[in-house]
Amino acid sequence: MGLVVQKFGGTSVGTIERIKNTAKRVIAEKKKGNDVIVVVSAMGKTTDQLVSLAKELSPYPSKREMDMLLSTGEQVTISLLAIALAEAGYEAISLTGWQAGILTENVHSNARILNIDQMRIQQYLKENRIVVVAGFQGINDHNEITTLGRGGSDTTAVALAAALHADKCMIYTDVTGVFTSDPRYIPSARKLSAISYDEMLELANLGAGVLHSRAVEFAKNYKVPLEVCSSMEEESGTIIEEEVQVEKGLVVRGVAFEDEITRITVFGLKNKITNLSGIFTSLANNNIDVDIIIQNHTVGENPYLSFTIKHEDLRDTTQLLEAKQGELGFDHFEYEFGLAKVSIIGSGMISNPGVAAKMFDCLTRNDIQIKMVSTSEIKVSTVIEESHMIKAAQSLHTTFELDVVEQGVS
Ligand code: ADP
Ligand code: ASP
Ligand code: MG
After folding, report:
1. What is the largest distance, in Å, between two alpha-carbon atoms of the chain?
2. Pick from 391, 363, 356: which is nearest to 377 by CA?
3. Cα 142 to Cα 145: distance, rounded to the nearest angstrom
4. Domains 3-174 and 255-399 are alike in CATH topology
5. Ligand 1 within 6 A of 73 CB?
6. Antiparallel, parallel or unpaired: β 194-196 and 92-95
């Protein structure tokens, strides 16, 4: 007998019919003789609807109150699923994040999980109950409800699987696995039978919303056996694991993209040494995630600095830069929104020079201007106009032969 963590996303629990279907999947796992912990998201588009309600009252609602509000979505689903399981004759108990012992840092709207007090869950499992946990939420050490960032239920599931040494963690969603690109926008995207933790981490970080990137971090750090599969169809999904054998010659494994990127450029940095740390420390202290950073220094001129942020952080960023202009020491700053990031990912890149050149050539042939570039051993990211995002992703998908090649033989 083992322990299995199953996670069902919003679409998979979007209606009462789907909650019944989810209950069947949970029961099937229980019938195999396993202990089961189920993590669920809010029903359908509930979280978006709750955000809209708050926005009707205020353009910038307090993050503490938003966490209070958004955490209610998952609470509806846990109770309904526990009711459905009981109705089918299985003992189940629903737990909110704090009841499940999920302790997070003192940050609202994007908190990290710090620790899981497993006592209560262990007790219920010992009593042979199915434990249904609300995804995406926890509690901080001031007893305040926190949330883990959009898509954070995946992280709840993987963190629980890591803490309780589960034998596997299944992420049930509305696609049949991890694809070479988002199948909703790239029709020729193909399902990968397996992908490495590192590649999945890059895909998730670079915009592939199928998994929350912190969930992949947990899975990688604690070697959690992870599978993404469909909650509706009976086909095998994608295994995420340490090493994946890739067919010879396959350099790029996926194309990811993300819209609503804003570029900030800070001109006339006066003190080259302290400016950078001052700016980025201030941004970090305000929980503003910075992505691509480029500093340019030509002889005889003050250096300038460009970096990208998510559009939702623009207001906080501009307020911060305005307030600290004197202290940080720069002339002025500008911003440009309506941008997108399009990236290619694959561990085969390390040993294959020319991948970036091929990417730039493809974008140039499509008349797409590249505004920023960032590379690592296993990815190349470009910032381009948002209006070209899908065209760029589709062309890169074709150029790197992802439309045709059967992938990920593990
Ligand atoms: P859930 O509510 O189950 O968590 P999400 O909407 O968060 O579901 O994630 C599933 C969605 O992720 C898919 O519908 C798909 O559009 C999107 N997606 C983005 N990139 C990928 C990818 N590379 N492979 C599969 N799905 C992807
Ligand atoms: N309900 C939250 C969201 O929509 C968390 C999740 O689904 O993972 O982002
Ligand atoms: Mg999700």
Report:
1. 77
2. 356
3. 9
4. no
5. no
6. unpaired
Q: Ligand 2 pocket, 207 CB below 6 A?
A: no
Q: Is 143 exposed, middle or buried (0-12, 13-18, 19+ CB in 10 A)?
A: exposed
Distant-in-sequence contacts of 320-323, Cβ < 8 A, 24+ apart: 320/282, 320/283, 320/286, 320/288, 321/264, 321/266, 321/279
* DSSP designation for 259: E
Going by C-alpha positions, the residue among 65, 59, 127 that lies closest to residue 93 is: 127
Lowest mean per-residue pLDDT among 39-43, 145-149, 302-306: 302-306
pLDDT 10s digits, 173-203 = 999 999 999 999 999 999 999 999 999 999 9
Ligand 2 in reach of 9 Cβ (< 6 A): yes
Which listed CATH number (3.40.50.720, 3.30.1490.20, 3.30.2130.10, 3.40.50.150) goes with 255-399?
A: 3.30.2130.10
CA nearest ligand 2 atom 5, residue? 151
Per CATH, the number for 3-174 is 3.40.1160.10
Does the C-beta of 184 come closer than 6 Å to ligand 1? yes
Q: Is the pTM here over 0.90, yes or no?
A: yes
The span from the CA of 197 to the CA of 218, in Å, is 10
Tokens of 386: 């948002």
For tokens 């029961």, what's the residue?
27
46 within 8 A of 73, measured Cβ to Cβ: yes
| Domain boundaries defined on the chain | 3-174, 255-399
Checking if the pLDDT of 301 tops 90, the result is no
| CA–CA dist 318, 323 (Å, integer) | 8
The C-alpha atoms of residue 149 and residue 36 are separated, in whole angstroms, by: 25
Let me know how long the chain is.
Answer: 410
Protein residues with C-beta less than 5 angstroms from the ion ligand 3: 9, 151
Place of tokens 């199928």: 210
Q: Phi then psi for 218, rounded to 5 degrees?
A: -60, -45
Sign of CA dihedral 208, 211, 215, 216: negative
| Distance between Cα 223 and ligand 2 center (Å) | 24
